[in-house]
């Protein structure tokens, strides 16, 4: 309960930056840790100093870093060691302040089976469940298999029939063991149309516990949250009061201190709620609670860790407006949300509308297969839910981002959808309403963007000219020559023809009959152009042959094609290639095996996920070029299946996403239904 002046943040990325921000505002000196691949990461430069370690999971190195820098306290963030009771105990035993709940509470709540038992004893409703695989069928299908330890959706499988059970149990055990070092699993009744509602709690070392209302985290893909909000559009004052009382009662039974979350599943039809688990740490989605209450949860963690009293009761907390958080990921929604890697060629939030960005990246950051592909959490706060949703959608659309495939357009489309605005946000939202997974570009829109890109290129080329700099591009003594630029937008090649007239405008089209373009202003980072009386302003960023244009409706990547292209190598028919860098953890076929269409042929682990690669068509495996345990790069040829239809990348992939910044393999294929701690 002693005070401290130096804080070690035992994490990385956006949560490390987030903790450092508040700690610094409180006058605390901060220490970051980093592995070699994170040497240039944003969280390293945010802190006062940093210590290089070999792994974010090495508790001994974390303690050594604290001793080396005279740190007196440790904040674990979330993921990695945040819910590791052994690490928490070691921190305390070394005379350091642990910014979190007691090791005893972490240990008890880290075991979901024990947690459900305690909740039941405290009078909190729970779903019918069993931790004996021989009894799973007695629960009735569908059921949800979950890991007894950890969280974040890892080790999670929805099972619809007895025929699926054996394979699901094996997969869940393997993922649980890899992710948490504990292969125990259990099953509970599966509620397909439900809402994931959680209550934020805070406790101090003096026995005081408060709740700060609820968050709804129902919109998920692969049992992982992507949009969270507070308050819930579904929860009534009666339900809120009952859930809040249940959460506080359970916290008192635990002797809980610091920040935590009690998670519930709420039946969308009956309104009945059931205990899921307690997350003994800060949640990824904590900013929405901060926005509606005005309470800085990290500050409260640091205050209570130093022995201060909360100083207020649940009934003293006031709530204002509505807050929504969207998780911006480096992933491809159109390809079943498969993660993507690469360099962020541009990452520049727009100044308006004013929203909050919690991030650990910047322009030039590399998204690798080593960690979770979260780019940023974007949070809006408005007077009403509709205000917050539309404000957040517009902020996402105006964000300049390029270099990796992201879920930005999918998030914006979801936030603007009638179903979301109506509050129909159950856990099967994506399956029921199918928001567009990518921004569509009709021919008219493509032509506008392509013309704007061509005009910017013309200006850029002219600016870089070293001779005759006062003359327009393409100038001739006689008739001005017609210019041509070839571009690719969303996989479609577009050719723009233009020629400058003597008044500063440009005639468009191969015969000059495509109208007129007038560049109103242009610089290295923007263009304001009028095309056939329609005026648009775009932010522009160039990286090599790629232009990133951000304007009305969102961002577009435009590839500038070379004038003379080199023939591409001929693709191998029936090729199965790696969709991303990763590790081959299982080959399920051998040379000579006959495979069926959509049969799983290999499993790759990348970004804390298992990706099941499937054959596009039936055929025979003729060659295999990798072995189990191999580290591979993106687009590496894995095998050839004769008779299979060639598709780009991989024919089909199931993925299971691990917790935010957390180690190990992943959770469950599929989407919708209840989760337990799908916080990553």
Give a written overview of the molecule:
This protein is α+β, with helices and mostly antiparallel strands. It folds into five domains: 94 residues, Rossmann fold (3-Layer(aba) Sandwich); 60 residues, 2-Layer Sandwich (Dna Ligase, domain 1), CATH 3.30.1490.20; 239 residues, D-amino Acid Aminotransferase, Chain A, domain 1; 110 residues, 2-Layer Sandwich (Glycoprotein, Type 4 Pilin); 82 residues, RNA polymerase II/Efflux pump adaptor protein, barrel-sandwich hybrid domain (OB fold (Dihydrolipoamide Acetyltransferase, E2P), Beta Barrel). Helix content is 24%, strand content 32%. It is built from 15 helices and 40 strands. The protein has an eight-stranded antiparallel sheet with strand order 14-13-10-11-12-15-22-20. An eight-stranded antiparallel barrel has the order 24-25-26-27-28-29-30-31. A five-stranded parallel sheet has the order 3-2-1-4-5, with helices on both faces. A hairpin with a 5-residue loop joins strand 13 and strand 14. Helix 4 runs antiparallel to helix 5. The longest helix has 22 residues. The protein is globular and about 80 Å long. The two termini are 31 Å apart. About 4% of the residues have low confidence.
């Amino acid at each position: 309960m002693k005070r401290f002046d130096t804080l070690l943040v035992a994490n990385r990325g956006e949560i490390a930056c987030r903790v450092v921000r508040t700690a610094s505002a409180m006058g605390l000196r901060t220490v970051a840790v980093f592995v070699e691949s994170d040497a240039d990461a944003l969280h390293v430069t945010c802190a006062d100093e940093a210590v290089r370690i070999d792994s974010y999971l090495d508790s001994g190195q974390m303690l050594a870093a604290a001793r080396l820098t005279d740190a007196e306290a440790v904040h674990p963030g979330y993921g990695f060691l945040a819910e590791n009771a052994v690490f928490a105990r070691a921190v305390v035993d070394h005379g350091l302040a642990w910014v979190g709940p007691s090791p005893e509470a972490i240990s008890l709540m880290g075991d979901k089976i024990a947690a459900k038992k305690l909740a039941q004893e405290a009078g909190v409703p729970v779903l019918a469940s069993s931790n004996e695989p021989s009894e799973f069928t007695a629960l009735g299908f569908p059921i949800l298999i979950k890991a007894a330890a950890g969280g974040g959706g890892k080790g999670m499988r929805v099972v619809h029939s007895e025929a699926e059970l054996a394979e699901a149990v094996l997969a869940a055990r393997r993922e649980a063991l890899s992710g948490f070092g504990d292969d125990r699993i259990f099953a509970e009744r599966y509620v397909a149309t439900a809402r994931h509602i959680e209550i934020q709690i805070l406790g101090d070392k003096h026995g005081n516990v408060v709740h700060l209302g609820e968050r709804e985290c129902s919109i998920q893909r692969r049992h992982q949250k992507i949009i969270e909000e507070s308050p819930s559009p579904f929860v009534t004052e009666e339900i809120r009061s009952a859930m809040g009382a249940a959460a506080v009662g359970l916290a008192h039974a635990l002797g809980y201190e610091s920040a935590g979350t009690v998670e519930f599943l709420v039946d969308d039809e009956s309104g009945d709620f059931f205990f899921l688990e307690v997350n003994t740490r800060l949640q990824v989605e904590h900013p929405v609670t901060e926005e509606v209450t005005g309470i800085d949860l990290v500050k409260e963690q640091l205050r209570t860790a130093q022995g201060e009293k909360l100083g207020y009761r649940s009934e003293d907390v006031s709530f204002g407006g509505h807050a929504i958080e969207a998780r911006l990921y480096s992933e491809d929604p159109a390809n079943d949300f498969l993660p993507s890697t690469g360099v962020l060629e541009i990452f520049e939030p727009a100044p308006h509308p004013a929203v909050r960005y919690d991030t650990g990246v910047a322009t030039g950051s590399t998204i690798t297969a080593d960690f979770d592909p979260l780019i940023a959490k974007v949070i809006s706060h408005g007077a009403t839910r509709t205000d917050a949703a539309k404000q957040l959608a517009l902020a996402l659309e105006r964000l300049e981002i390029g270099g990796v495939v992201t879920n930005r357009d999918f998030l914006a489309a979801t936030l603007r959808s009638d179903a979301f605005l109506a509050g129909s946000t159950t856990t099967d939202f994506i399956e029921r309403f199918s928001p567009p997974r990518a921004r569509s570009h009709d021919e008219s829109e493509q032509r506008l963007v392509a013309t704007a890109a061509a005009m910017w290129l013309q200006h850029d080329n002219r600016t870089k000219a070293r001779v005759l700099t006062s003359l327009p591009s393409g100038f001739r003594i006689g008739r001005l020559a017609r210019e041509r630029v070839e571009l690719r937008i969303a996989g479609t090649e577009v050719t723009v023809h233009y020629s400058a007239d003597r008044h500063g405008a440009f005639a468009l089209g191969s015969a000059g009959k495509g109208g007129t373009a007038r560049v109103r202003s242009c610089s290295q980072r923007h263009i304001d152009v009028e095309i056939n009386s329609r005026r648009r302003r775009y932010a522009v960023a160039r990286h090599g042959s790629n232009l990133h244009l951000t304007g009305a409706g969102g961002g577009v990547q435009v590839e500038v094609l070379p004038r003379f292209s080199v023939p591409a190598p001929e693709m191998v028919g029936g090729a199965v290639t790696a969709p991303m860098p990763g590790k081959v953890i299982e080959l399920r076929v051998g040379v000579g095996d006959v495979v069926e269409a959509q049969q799983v042929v290999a499993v790759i682990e990348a970004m804390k996920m298992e990706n099941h690669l499937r054959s596009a068509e039936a055929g025979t495996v003729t060659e295999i070029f990798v072995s189990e345990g191999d580290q591979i790069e993106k687009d590496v040829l894995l095998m050839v299946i004769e008779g299979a239809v060639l598709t780009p990348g991989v024919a089909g992939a199931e993925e299971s996403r691990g917790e935010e910044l957390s180690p190990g393999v992943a959770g469950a294929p599929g989407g919708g239904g209840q989760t337990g701690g799908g916080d990553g």
